What we know:
Keywords: Signal
Oligomer: single chain
Family: Belongs to the UPF0065 (bug) family.
Order of helices and strands: HHEHEHEHEHEHEHEHEEHHEH
CATH architecture of the largest domain: 3-Layer(aba) Sandwich
Organism: Mycolicibacterium grossiae
Protein name: C4-dicarboxylate ABC transporter substrate-binding protein
Pfam families: TctC
Number of domains: 2
Amino acid sequence: MPVSIRTSLAILLAAALVAAGAGTIGVAAAAPYPTGPVTMTAGANPGSGFDLTIRSVVDALREDRIVDVPLPIQNRPGGSGADFLATMVRDHDGADDQISVTSLAMMINQVSGTSPYGYADVTMIARLLTEYFVVVTRPDSRYQNLGDVLAAVAADPAGVRVGAAHDDEAPFDLLVAAAGGDPASTRYVTHEGGGDQSDALAADAVDVAIGGVSEFVDRITSGDLRALGVLAENRLPGLDVPTAREQGFDVTLSNWRGLYGPPHMPRYAVEYWQRALATMVDSPAWQRIAERRRVTTTFMVGDDLQAFLARTQTDVQAALQST
């Protein structure tokens, strides 16, 4: 039976926060916080979706002078963000100088039992963007479309090496299930993000890979990778890649990304970053980044964010149970 999973793309621009004084000067000059560096962490390797997102945030905040304190970036890979999430919970409780990026991976990790922690264990600051998953391969691959890949997986699961971060396995499982295969038999080769997956493809260590569009878009447009299908409702503007649905597989799945702080992060810090980010998503720098990465800005904070997280966690539970 076809599987169809959809994640909401509703856009909320927190007008009330902007009206309350989230202008560039007000944010940059806010006192008494922040007075020193705020560490920005990607819980995955360079080139991953986490890495690209946190670096995009820092670039936009700096370029448009929204925040004027140092924002050092660190990569702390492990478990598709689960390892640093545990560090945030255990070591930074109550801190105001630690921010990290998260996504659907946080929910998949918790629901699947990979991590004991989830969004309720930290301070969720904002959802920033939404992007779709895409399946890619080498330009010289024998796989010409999703049908070729999924037929090969069904016929000989061990013969198709699928490069995927742990959280990227769920969307590929949905494709396998939609094609009538057994997701449990898929041969996954774990990589922490698109940079590592692209290197593995180039080295012929995997046959196909799946991840967020932003992780592969530069290599797709340069011709270094060939996109086989995107898990979107319609083809993405500026990226002529057929959808899974066009190819007979009724699977649509998007990934959200946002920022979180430690448990019990002080309210003054949370409100500061929500104002700063509300300004950022309207900035020219951020809009250029979003267009280049083929992501949709879906800014959300407060009660709306909490409702979205609860609803999406329920969807993830249902999706994992269906495979």
